[in-house]
Amino acid sequence: MIYNLVQLIEKKASQFSEKDAFRCLDASISYGELHRKSSQLAQHLNAMGVQKGDRIGIYLNRCLETAPAVYGILKSGAAYVPLDPFAPAARTIAILEDCGIEILMTGKSHKKALAQITANSDQIKTLIGDIQGASIATVSWEDIFSCSLETYSPVRILEQDLAFILYTSGSTGVPKGIMHTHYSGLSLAKIAADTYDFGSDDIFGNPAPLHFDPSTFGYFVAPLVGATTVILPDAYLKLPVSLSALIAKENISVWYSVPLMLIQLLLSGTLEKHDFSALRWVLFAGEVFSTKHLRALMLIWPHTRFSNLYGPAELILCTYYHVKEPPVSDDPISIGTVWANTAYKILGRDNQEVVKGSTGELVVRSATRMHGYWNNVALTEQSFHRIKIAEGYEHIYYRTGDLVRENENGELLFLGRNDRQIKLRGYRVELDEVEAVLLRDAQVEEVAVVVVGMDNEAQELVAFIKRVADGDTFDTDSLIHWCATELPAYAIPKTVRLLDNFPRTSSGKIDRKAMAAMIELT
Amino acid sequence: MNIIEKIKAYIVQSISDITPDEIDADDDLLGSGIIDSMGMMKLVIFIEEELDIKIPDADMIVENFMTLQNINDYLLQRKDVDLKQD
Questions:
Q1: Which backbone phi and psi does B42 adopt, to 5 degrees?
Q2: A464-483: buried (b, 16+ CB within 10 Å) or exposed (e) per residue?
């Protein structure tokens, strides 16, 4: 029986040794090779002193090396922590220090960004990867992959061991680390494979970067069924004409991304030019798919099945909805209902279940639930809703913070966030965090950040600012520059508006709705 | 200044916060994070205005825009572009 993630590769290496496990353009790695290389990496890490429960960073863009990196770290007993290589250095350093990462897997594309990190922090002690001339100790892949495995003794890994930590923005301005175990990761793989009937003939397109939870499909679901994962490189994802050709050329049969990426493919005008007959599943999650675009896409790909998935990174995923026909109306499509091994409740403000059909917060109990937030017991407890079933036995539900309503067919309708965390083009943004950063600029007295725009694709952040009384000229460029050192690009407000007085609600709170309306009118 | 130098200068001035000597002709501009999708759009508009040409969507492919060298080669094979300007 499989009870941890490394067994996925062990098992498939004996069954499909020669078959491609991962491909990235002209480079590929077979299951047999991945099994051997990840063992070599694990052996090296253990020899360096890496022990069960340690955290190791992966600072790589979308490339083939991510596969042996993920499985090598897991085999060593450590947890992998994927870092966004395009994030500002200050944010990356905050994460490295928060979870005590001393070893980082990286590559030469990131040499310049890395130099900034090592110049400002001495947290990292060793780099692993094809990178030369770095200021700290570096081990090359070649050194690792040339080692003999004769004396290798694998670490025994249990299902409750930590597997990976995904960092996401936190409301206090400090990123929070979502801890997943081998059990939650493997549960995701098993449930997804059953729900969509994936098989070894499938070819998974993986557009998600490793630090984004949809990457679990390419890295764990595909290996569970012995399929091949095609890693789509960064440049292709930014040039939809090339992406469209690559999806066709690779005969991708399973696609999973945020709707925006599918919309860009659709708008590239190239979908009629290529043969997409292999594409049997298009899965999307992370934001609402505008029905207008979904309809157009379903008409272009009539042979493909479409499914809407939903789930915060704390659960990876939890509900699904098969879109059987191109939507007729412009009503938002349902997020469906919970999949296998998962239960839910809809709670009102009093923490009691609402009457059927009423709006409330979705709380979910699932095998895919995170273990908790790294180093933050209080936040973990706050996010759990515990129900005592019997003495010493309780059910733990995760509070999604999302408002939903159940329709007459028992399907869930997503109605938005019940707090100040929003989704912007698939990225989670804590408005409170953005405000906290802006407020630290000396020119700023008071700030309110609002989201404007009706279409998901056109939504953007606007910062309203009351400047300090004695300030003379306001320097917007320096403010944006400051944001760029503290926040990921998607969380930087596109527009800055100066206001002498903020509109207030009757209770004296900043009236953000009125502010958003001021922008919509102009 | 040749077109590559001009593009480099534009990237440094308007898109990225790195210095000119940090970009090599064969650096993966998008994959290394030197420019993002928004930056790519700005860059294309800059090239179009600078050379007074139109770059059709169909030409916006990896082979033409991944590196500075790619951009140079793409512009060279376009018959309507005169790169021998000063």
A1: -65, -40
A2: bbebeeeeeeeeeeebbebb
**A-B C-beta contacts closer than 8 Å:** 53
Sorted by sequence, the CB contacts under 8 Å of residue A101 that are 6+ apart come out as A55, A56, A57, A81, A95, A123, A124
Quote the CA–CA distance of A57 and A97 in Å, as a whole number: 11
Q: How far apart are CA A233 and CA A19, in angstroms?
A: 21
Q: Is A146 exposed, middle or buried (0-12, 13-18, 19+ CB in 10 A)?
A: exposed
Which of A83, A63, A72, A108 has the alpha carbon at shortest distance from A229?
Answer: A63
Tell me whether A235 touches chain B (CB under 8 Å): yes
**What ipTM was assigned to the predicted interfaces of this complex?**
0.89
The two tokens of residue A470 are: 């004695």
A242 phi/psi in degrees, rounded to 5: -70, -40
Phi, psi dihedral angles at A253 (to 5 degrees): -110, -20
Domain A337-366+374-417 -> CATH class: mainly beta
**Is B58 close to A270, i.e. CB distance below 8 A?**
yes
Residue-wise pLDDT tens digits, A5-51: 999 999 999 999 999 999 999 999 999 999 999 999 999 999 999 99
A28 lies within 8 A of chain B by CB: no
User: E-assigned strands of A311-353?
Assistant: 319-323, 337-338, 342-347
**CA distance to partner chain B, nearest, from residue A522 (Å):** 23
Low-confidence ranges of chain A (pLDDT < 70): 170-173, 419, 454-457, 471, 505-509, 521-522
Nearest to A452 by CA among A401, A404, A518: A518
**For every residue of A286-300, which 3-state class applies, written as one string?**
CCCCCHHHHHHHHHH
Tens of pLDDT, residue by residue over B12-33, are 888 887 777 788 888 889 888 8
Query: Given 1.10.1200.10, 2.60.120.280, 3.30.465.10, 1.10.760.10, which CATH number is that of B3-77?
Result: 1.10.1200.10
CATH of the structural domain A424-521, one choice from 2.40.50.100, 3.30.70.100, 3.20.20.140, 3.30.300.30: 3.30.300.30
Looking at per-residue confidence, does A314 or B83 come out higher?
Answer: A314
Alpha carbon separation from A118 to A50, A112, A126 (Å, rounded): 21, 10, 11
SS3 B10: helix
pLDDT at B86: 46
